[in-house]
Amino acid sequence: LTQLFRPLDMLGMVYRTIRQGLIDMAEMFRLLDEPQEVSDRPGAPALVIRRPSVVFDNVVFGYEKDRQILHGLSFEVPAGRNYAIVGPSGAGKSTLARLLFRFYDPQGGRILIDGQDIKEVTQASLRAAIGIVPQDSVLFNDTIGYNIGYGRDDATQADIEEAARGAALMGLIDRLPQGFQTEVGERGLKLSGGEKQRVAIARTLVKNPPILLLDEATSALDTRTEQDILATLHRVAEHRTSLSIAHRLSTIADADSILVLQEGRLAESGTHGQLLRAGGLYAEMWARQASETDELGEAAE
Ligand code: ATP
Q1: Other CB atoms within 10 Å distance of the CB of residue 108
Q2: Which of 55, 155, 165, 260 could form a disulfide with 149 if both were Cys (CB 3.0 to 4.6 A apart)?
Q3: Name one GO cellular component term (predicted).
């Protein structure tokens, strides 16, 4: 943390960027439960985004010296595209997200955003460029309006309302006795998992980041709510570059491309249709999930 306090001229915009970085870090730490291990290079410039592409170029990484997790992972998400990451448990999906947020530096290869090596730019600017919608969001013991606007100091009431609309929260807020001023959290209104996730989406909309990292819910929500949330997420991801870590394949069938990770390598990639036709790991995972869903359906009947 000391490096955040080192320069004395971090005011205005810069201060806000850092605060934003901290908010996302807090969110991500909670999400991923990880310590921070990297620091800014002295004099590092801010990330400048014109076309927010994301490139992993032969990335090699392990948490411990003698155990490599990613073995030369390469892929590119072109600016404005929505990609999904799938793969068996332990394949390295969360690790990839941690590296993109620069919680760790790779031992080999590079990660580029809009052509800039993320190791060479300030972490604050990197983290300001990436919005995260985690599976389960923490709300502060404050009003619902505060919870939506948190993340951008200069958010106006109009920004907050627009974000609430974008995240399909207005129905709920209109029903609340004190609207945006209603207290949520421990001492106030209890929100459902789906509502909390919508608050997280609205918070991300207020921040308006060019890149989104979505950690799609595993099974916390009922199907109807899940469909609604997914539709909202897809709308939010439109016109942005997004990477969704998906657990259930049915939710990402319309991704521009699906990256299939296996044991720290890119096993295959392509659209849902292409991957099904290829008859590889994805097709196998798809068949397995489909039969599980059928079994669940039959069991419920
Ligand atoms: P899941 O779908 O189960 O969440 P994943 O694809 O996201 O899995 P990762 O969490 O990236 O997988 O883990 C990849 C590998 O790295 C696993 O073998 C895991 O045990 C290991 N790993 C993850 N975090 C750490 C850590 N902090 N220290 C050491 N090893 C770790």
Answers
A1: 13
A2: 155
A3: plasma membrane
- The Cα 8–Cα 197 span in angstroms is 36
pLDDT in tens, 203-233: 988 988 999 998 775 555 566 777 777 788 8
- Interface confidence: ipTM more than 0.90: yes
User: The whole model's pTM is what?
Assistant: 0.81
CB–CB of 8/74 below 8 Å? no
179: left (phi over 0), alpha (psi -120 to 50) or beta: left
Cα 237 to chain centroid, rounded: 11
**SS3 assignment, position 132:** strand
- Ligand 1 centroid – CA 94 distance (Å): 7
How big is the CA angle at 144 (ends 139 and 150), to the nearest 5 degrees?
65
**Nearest ligand 1 atom to alpha carbon 92:** 11
DSSP letters, 29-59, are HHHH-------PPTTPPPP--SS--EEEEEE
Please report which helix (H) or strand (E) contains residue 93, including its range.
helix 93-100
- Evaluate: CB of 135 within 6 angstroms of ligand 1: no
Average pLDDT, the chain: 83
- Kindly report the backbone phi and psi dihedral angles of residue 23, in degrees, each rounded to the nearest multiple of 5, phi listed first: -60, -45
Task: Please list, in sequence order, all residues whose beta carbon lies within 8 angstroms of the beta carbon of residue 240, skipping any fewer than 6 positions away.
Answer: 52, 80, 209, 210, 211, 212
Gap from CA of 95 to ligand 1 centroid (Å)? 6
Q: Is the dihedral of CA 297, 133, 199, 28 positive or negative?
A: positive
98 lines ligand 1 (CB under 6 A): no
Query: Does ligand 1 have an atom closer than 6 angstroms to the CB of 25?
Result: no
Question: pLDDT of 156-190, one tens digit each?
Answer: 999 999 999 988 899 999 998 899 999 886 655 67
- Over its C-alpha atoms, the chain yields an Rg (Å, rounded) of 20
